[in-house]
């Protein structure tokens, strides 16, 4: 059975005075483990990996692995639009002791399907670590088609995909074409419950940052076939899932954690900017309705 199963949090990276707040990150990890989160994913999109230096990236992965200490799987973000850089980041994830690497498709370059295949295959052959593909067309301007995913599933250590196309038709085709032991994880909170019911293994979640217990319980219920419980939790969480995208991710998640008293500052790094006053009022209302503030 895959270890990439359940609700994995795409964890934010707290910054204080422009630097990684290591104590806040460690405290967030403890908060997640105490509330049943099934896995931790540092240095993803939600972790603002695109604006972190390599030294910061390495340190966040190392601190996450050390803090987790084997209690849940750690899947380190290691993607890049440079194949050689992706190899370096993935190699570091392995050396740091991560259980897997999450590799976003190359952004900006707009590679062909063959280019995507060769990129992932090259990294997988260079670094012996379980690799999860990350398909997020809205950010990368490319879409890993199901047939390409199926080809990549034949590479020994490519073990799954975070599917954030939001397209249940495409997700169904990926599940249909890939081996039964290939872990398909939703990359969109709003599709996570239906995606599991189609045969996926879980979600890599933004909403888990603020509601880890409910996200974990929803995934547990869906994976167990308890449709009534999973559906109830989906609709309980749904307004909060929407609130996490009132502005560009991770702006709402970080501000929410600040309002909840979990981090000192929810300010993202440029070029992301804090949300405007009108959006902040909406976010506070959503958090209050959920009982988080």
Tally of extended strands?
Answer: 10
Please give the order of strands in the largest beta sheet: 4-1-10-9-8-7-6-5
Mean pLDDT comes to: 97
Q: Briefly note the CATH topology name.
A: TIM Barrel
Assigned CATH architecture: Alpha-Beta Barrel
Helix and strand content put the structural class at alpha/beta
Rg over CA atoms: 18 Å
Low-confidence stretches: none
Which CATH class? Alpha Beta
- What proportion of the residues is helical, as a percent range? 40-55%
Considering the chains and any ligands shown, give keywords for the structure.
293 residues; alpha/beta; TIM Barrel; eight-stranded parallel beta sheet; two-stranded antiparallel ribbon; 12 helices
Description:
The chain has helices at residues 22-34, 54-68, 83-96, 113-126, 137-140, 146-152, 168-177, 189-198, 212-223, 227-243, 251-259, 277-290, and strands spanning 6-10, 15-16, 19-20, 39-41, 75-77, 100-104, 131-135, 158-163, 183-186, 202-205. With 293 residues, the chain is an alpha/beta fold. An eight-stranded parallel sheet has the order 4-1-10-9-8-7-6-5. The protein has a two-stranded antiparallel sheet with strand order 2-3. The longest helix has 17 residues, at 227-243. The mean pLDDT is 97.
């Amino acid at each position: 059975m895959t270890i990439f199963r359940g609700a994995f949090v795409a964890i934010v990276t707290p910054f204080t005075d422009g630097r990684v707040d290591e104590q806040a990150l460690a405290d967030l990890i403890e908060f997640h483990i105490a509330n049943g989160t099934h896995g931790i994913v540092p240095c993803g999109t939600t972790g603002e990996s695109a604006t972190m230096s390599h030294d910061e990236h390495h340190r966040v992965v190392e601190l996450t692995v050390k803090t987790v200490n084997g209690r849940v799987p750690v899947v380190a973000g290691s993607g890049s639009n440079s194949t050689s850089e992706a190899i370096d980041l993935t190699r570091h994830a392995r050396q740091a002791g991560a259980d897997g690497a999450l590799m976003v498709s190359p952004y900006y370059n707009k590679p062909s399907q063959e280019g995507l295949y060769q990129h992932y295959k090259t990294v997988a052959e260079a670094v012996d670590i379980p690799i999860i593909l990350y398909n997020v067309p809205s950010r990368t301007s490319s879409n890993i088609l199901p047939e390409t995913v199926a080809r990549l599933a034949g590479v020994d250590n490519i073990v799954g995909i975070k599917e954030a196309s939001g397209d249940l038709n495409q997700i169904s085709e990926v599940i249909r074409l890939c081996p039964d032991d290939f872990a398909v994880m939703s990359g969109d909170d709003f599709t996570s419950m239906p995606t599991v019911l189609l045969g996926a293994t879980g979600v890599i979640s933004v909403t888990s940052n603020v509601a880890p217990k409910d996200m974990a319980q929803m995934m547990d219920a869906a994976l167990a076939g308890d449709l009534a419980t999973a559906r109830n939790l989906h609709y309980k969480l749904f307004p909060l899932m929407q609130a996490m995208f009132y502005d560009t991710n991770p702006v709402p998640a970080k501000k929410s954690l600040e309002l909840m008293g979990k981090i000192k500052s929810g300010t993202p790094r440029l070029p992301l900017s804090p949300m405007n006053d009108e959006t902040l009022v909406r976010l506070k209302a959503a958090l209050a309705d959920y009982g988080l503030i």
